[in-house]
């Protein structure tokens, strides 16, 4: 206990505001001491873009977006990109997954969100191999999403730089917040 403070009191700090509470005073009464503009401040994401693929990490990203959307009463846009590779003279090689597999992935994620009471939309697009990050950022801008949510396999910064992590690229290309789920 510091000098000058009466017995049975507790000092609580709120940024630049410090309040002294009496013993037995309810913690909720501290809210009255916080300036009104700070009590009402809340991060709200009206639109959330979630980049999904067919991985367990992607499933966790959908659940994180669900929680964000429930807190902010926002809507979620699910984006699944089918990447094709350039095969030289053969032209573009088809993606590893069929369009129906990609649609099923997005539809399952949309169903999870709608069951939780979240408004959700699903989009499947084709893109060239290595261009997924640019497409994710472009869609976030086009849809005016406030945040991008995506999974990461947890590579280090060096491995992401050398191997080309999509999450690393999105973080560097966008001007919006990015929530990375591992």
Automatic annotation (TrEMBL):
InterPro entries: Rossmann-like_a/b/a_fold, Universal_stress_UspA, UspA
Segments traversing the membrane: none
CDD domains, per the entry: USP-like (cd00293)
Region annotation Disordered: where it falls in the sequence: 1-21
Positions with biased composition (Polar residues): 9-19
Domain called UspA: residue spans: 45-182
PANTHER family: STRESS RESPONSE PROTEIN NHAX (PTHR46268), UNIVERSAL STRESS PROTEIN HP_0031 (PTHR46268:SF15)
Family classification: Belongs to the universal stress protein A family.
Protein name, entry field: Universal stress protein
